[in-house]
Structure formats: C-alpha cells, structure tokens
Amino acid sequence: MAHIIVVGNEKGGSGKSTTSMHVATALARAGKSVGLIDLDLRQKSLGRYIENRTAYAQKHELDLATPVYQALPDIDRSSLSPGENIQDRRLSAAISGFDAGTDFILIDCPGSHTRLSQVAHTLADTLITPLNDSFVDFDLLAKVDGDTNEILGPSVYSEMVWNARQLRAEAGLTPIDWIVTRNRVGAQAMHNKKKMADAVGKLSRRIGFRVAPGFSERVIFRELFPRGLTLLDLKDIGVKGLNISNVAARQELRELMENLRLPDVKVDF
Fold it and tell me: Could you report the per-residue pLDDT of 206-222, keeping only the tens digit for each?
C-alpha cells in the first residue's frame, strides 16, 4: 500500500500548499510514484499547481517529474449504504483511483475543520503540520497562560489528531508520525522566537510530535506558483546560478525531507 502523507493545519496561510508542492515534487524527482489529493474544494491551490506545472511543461517542451493529481469524484447518493457519509466515499474512491504501484499519496487539507480533513488525518502514516512562528497559530495546538506562557492543555487541532491516533490504534494500524514544521521563523534572535521555540519543544514532548525546520518567507515561492515549479526545477528551466536566497531555500527543503524520514527515500539534491 502507498505511504500516505497528510499536510494539515486548521489555520489558513500556514504554508500547507507550499509544503505539499515541494514535498510531492521532491519525491517525484527522486523517482517515486506520487499521487496528490487536494481537499480544499474551494481554493484548490494544489490542484491549480499541477495544472500550472503541466501547462508550463507542455508549452516549453520540458520533461518535468510531476505527481499524479486525483480530483474527488462525484458520487451517486443512491449508491451509499445506510448511514454512509458521502465525503468518506469520495475520499476513498479518490485514493482507490491511483495505480497499485503508487509509492506515496499526499493529501493537502484545507485551513478549516471539515469532514474530509478529519477522515484524512485517520489515514495518515505521516502527518505534516506547518506552523507559522506565532502564538496565534500555536493556539490551535495548545492553550497557553497569557501571563506565564505555560501550556495549559491541548487545543482543538491537537485533540483532532489525538482522536485520529485513537482510531488508528483501534484499527490495528501503525501510529501516525506527526511532524510540526516551523515556518516563517525570523532570522534574528528575537524574544518571541525563543518563546515559540520553547513552547513548541515543551508541547512536542507532551503530546508526541517531532519538530522540523520549515520554510522562511521568500518571494521565490510566490514567483514559482504560476508556472507550477519548485526550487528543484530551476536548473531544468535554464537557471544557471542560484542566488543566496534560493540556495538557502533549497537547503531548507533538503532539511525538511531528511527530517520526514520517509521510507526508502534518499535525499540527494
């Protein structure tokens, strides 16, 4: 069976789509067969990325390693069993639509709590939660005392992941490998940066996730989206030399891929 990677966080603007694009493309360029599902049925950023990538490759006659995108199919309600949720069937049908030899299926979740997102989390072998380096985003993971910054307990998103873990355990499935990535971390040693690092570290030990470096805020990510490209494609489109920012961004992606510890994946870029 394919190894399922879920990219989830109920906070919009945390970098889920950027993370999804780069992880999926890095796997495809490593020779893995990768399937993609976008559960944000309104914005469809990941789906648009694949459309842009395919169109750009065809226009410029490029052979770009590209994941296979699968849209959620429409389901005839009359085919549902009594009590069966139509969204559950749609997600199951999309996953079943990939070839049997697919190595990885990456599911990008919306920045809100939905039935589809909830079910996807129960399917995750690896869960990636991008988190902006802000206590506004951290609030989805844990409740914090405003005076002491002490963690009072898990918040809504952490509770959902806990429920997903419980369901997987009851089904006899392997535990979720949960990785929280810190995005948009400031370059300077600011006081808030240290407080965030301490809070994320304490929470990781308390509720059981690993912490990995994410992506800094870089213009290059926004510039590449309309062409469906990633940092790893720059040489393929004729970019001969990378500037310092692009080199640093490529290193961030390398560190993220290494920290994910995905099965049979060699990071060699």
Answer: 899 999 988 888 888 88
Q: Has residue 109 been placed in a domain?
A: yes
| 87-116 confidence digits (pLDDT tens) | 999 999 999 999 999 999 999 999 889 999
11 compared with 189, residue with greater pLDDT: 11
| Environment class of 11 (CB within 10 Å of its CB; exposed 0-12, middle 13-18, buried 19+) | buried
Domain extent, residue 239, equals 3-260
Average pLDDT over residues 172-198: 81
Amino acid at 122: T
Q: What is the CATH number of the domain that holds 82?
A: 3.40.50.300
Dist CA 206 CA 41 (whole Å): 33
Residue 265 resides in a domain: no
What are the tens digits of pLDDT across the range 156-168? Answer: 999 999 999 999 9
For 26, 196, 249, 254, the CA distances from 243, given in Å and listed in that order, are: 20, 29, 10, 17
Dihedral sign of CA atoms 263, 265, 267, 269 in order: negative
221 alpha-carbon distance from chain centroid: 15
- Determine the 3-state secondary structure of 265 from DSSP: coil
For residue 266, is it within any domain? no
**Model pTM?**
0.93
Cβ atoms 116, 13 nearer than 8 A = no
